[in-house]
């Protein structure tokens, strides 16, 4: 069908033999080597090398770029959020509504997870990729209730067994006590919200959580949540969290924590003060910086739009370039050294210092001997190719593995959890000077002396 | 399988009856009305209304938002490019490499087309949606040749029939004449590029096009193109275009047109001067403004990254809100009037002035009688709800149609070409003051007097 379609759009003079040839195309002569998925890579370093018949590898260009660009972009963006959030805060991806359609959203969930997120709110991504899913109740669920009379199933048995209790009534009596403690008028606590919380608690007594900002957090959401959570506690259950979705999230988290502590102390419910506080609402890198500057009490952060659409840099510009034809290295000339391709089939090495941090990526021609740990190397750093530098790596790591040889997978592909832990390990190895998000120290990428000579020859030859 | 997965992630205390219930869920009680696809819509106006059991319509929220948000965003972005480019320039979508994975890219191709693009470079989108596809030769194809000896099939028969001719030799002789005319040294015209052009021309003699910037446009790409196109002309064929992919595209297009005109005049080939000039290379709205400011000779523009990732606004924030439960209108309160939902089941009208331009969208309660053309109406414009205004529409158009009633499609969905022409017609109806891209006049959105009263009552009741 694909060939029939191509026949319909190509000029009518196209030879039949060409379409016959297309029908025989396969990847049996293609070999792909790449850095392991999740590896940190730097600009100008090839992270994927494809060898094979020119026509076939050319057909792979758009497909490979499409698969790599957004995946790398969003994994990188997620890694930045993880670095800012620190290791203890839980991060939830919730970008489905703003991603590029259903499959764009699935890619976003998958690669956010690799980049360092803990959960996704995309249930299909959970099912397809085994990513843990998390969510909270919706504003619309809360708005759909107006009074406690609407709670249809009212009874909840205590955890330890025994006579079921009328939870709405119990919650209402707790609301009085909570409002007294917090010195807030009980009539300001919205009864529809209380009804929604109670209904939820009866359905999920071990998993009760509250969304606090449908009405007023301080006078309604928080007292209602505490009332239902204390009623549940009386029956032996523990609430599992709250969510804030508007306003000054850092300040509110502190206020919420203060109230949870006060309730915990006053009503002698010690676990109350550690109830996890989740936040959402257009969270960006800047939000995370604010949270840490203001010293928040936030335990979990949901990030959607700014994670999946990467507004700081909405696209990644990986390119796919021809570097060798029929065994001869080739070069796309340009005025701009930054855009010059590096010719030839190459082996890529990552050089480590004595502290275990990578300090340079080195491209060498495939036929060159591998650099040795502890031995001095002459290299030329991109951006200042004119000068030779000498480096002595403590460890030398070849970055690429051959995953696909002559049309066959030849190295098992790691699962998502392995890719994720490799990504996190790869990031943590970086020197903090290279890893920091603001004005990181540039990471040098170099070519070997032989590759440097080849580059010079080819430039001269084509001028 | 979905229910089994949900069972595995929901608390173990979840009742079996709930999962049994999930298995019976369908949309047989759901009704969806919407503006026809491709309609221009304004902020705050509901363009889709969903009625049905609360649980079911709630489950549709993320799906609908995911399907609508990016589609509307990229169609809007495409429409902006179309407005800037004017009606005569051809626009080609080429975002596959930078979109959110394969399906994100397909969505981008489809909705760019609706927004006003003419072609896509995504062949799969062409096949799946019937969008016309276009492309040009690649830099790598050109780089893969180094000399004319590499052209393997050399002979091309004239269009009118007769003895096949050695095209590389013919092109090389034309190159001498072109270089003489242009006063540029023939040895600066890269022979690999000439070989690539010749090979392409032999394969597609009626569809020859040149990518001019692999080496130097002026000294290599352009003379080589003219040489091959003139050689083809001698055999009866017409070249179909050139592409520029770097540098100052507007200036270069003028230089290229000048040379094409000079060649056309000198060698008496009149069609030469109208050879279409296509450009690409990170084209943005700003690029299009520059082209029109500098008076370019560009006939076709390829837009990729800045079309599909919408960097000026990388996401669209459509929301899905509960406005009525059990026949009672409801309201999510907020401090911010801009974010307040408009309660109740509504009918939406677009009001037109005597010139045929829409001048206001009006929301009224479903049970209200329709406003009449030529009759004075009292309305309250959002943003200044306090004041009543009077308007007299020349035409009144109900915006929504019911597409899905009680689980059944009840209005045939238009095909892509119809949606596209509806979008273009909908845009062209706009008053230019509303349509302009910079500081457009805000388009007023209003509520009927009855809806305004309901809004006031509900706000009062919940305070």
Automatic annotation (TrEMBL), chains A, B:
InterPro entries: Aldolase_TIM, NAPRTase_C, NAPRTase_N, Nic_PRibTrfase-Fam, Nic_PRibTrfase_pncB, Nicotinate_pribotase-like_C. GO terms for molecular function: glycosyltransferase activity; metal ion binding; nicotinate phosphoribosyltransferase activity. One of its GO terms (cellular component) is cytosol. The keyword Manganese applies. Keywords: Glycosyltransferase, Ligase, Magnesium, Manganese, Metal-binding, Phosphoprotein, Pyridine nucleotide biosynthesis, Transferase. It comes from the Eukaryota. Residues 2-69 form the Nicotinate phosphoribosyltransferase N-terminal domain. GO terms for biological process: NAD+ biosynthetic process via the salvage pathway. Residues 346-454 form the Nicotinate phosphoribosyltransferase C-terminal domain. Pathway: Cofactor biosynthesis; NAD(+) biosynthesis; nicotinate D-ribonucleotide from nicotinate: step 1/1. Transiently phosphorylated on a His residue during the reaction cycle. Phosphorylation strongly increases the affinity for substrates and increases the rate of nicotinate D-ribonucleotide production. Dephosphorylation regenerates the low-affinity form of the enzyme, leading to product release. The keyword Protease does not apply. It is an enzyme of class 6 (ligase). Catalyzes the first step in the biosynthesis of NAD from nicotinic acid, the ATP-dependent synthesis of beta-nicotinate D-ribonucleotide from nicotinate and 5-phospho-D-ribose 1-phosphate. Helps prevent cellular oxidative stress via its role in NAD biosynthesis. This is Nicotinate phosphoribosyltransferase. It comes from Aptenodytes forsteri (Emperor penguin).
